[in-house]
Amino acid sequence: xxxxxxxxxxxxxxxxxxxxxxxxxxxxxxxxxxxxxxxxxxxxxxxxxxxxxxxxxxxxxxxxxxxxxxxxxxxxxxxxxxxxxxxxxxxxxxxxxxxxxxxxxxxxxxxxxxxxxxxxxxxxxxxxxxxxxxxxxxxxxxxxxxxxxxxxxxxxxxxxxxxx
Length: 164
Prior knowledge:
By secondary structure, the chain is an alpha+beta fold. It has three helices and eight strands, in the order H-E-E-E-E-H-E-E-E-E-H.
């Protein structure tokens, strides 16, 4: 195995109590997936949990020990979206997020842009009753779960630029 390959078996099955302890003592590094279709709309997922809140969020995942960012992007995309969009090689934004909670409270988040066709994704729509994992395309800023509020200005600027 070369220095650039990943070993996804390392750190794969850390018991939750150990993970929560680690996440209370050190920042977590994660990747977030800003998926954009041919119309410039962004794809968000419905979330409802104690760590991140209730509402729309940019899909993402915490990098495991021994993983590359690319591997975590692919695993997260397949799990949360059902497919792997074409992603840029470098993050479009790196954000440090602090949350006021005991665990999972400090993140270094790498936002990657990805593209796909609108027809590639099954979405629920804005007026449906939402279940965890539901997907929806947005052409304006809908608000995000509190754990991703640090992306608010970036997304508002994106949509403002898109209107021009």
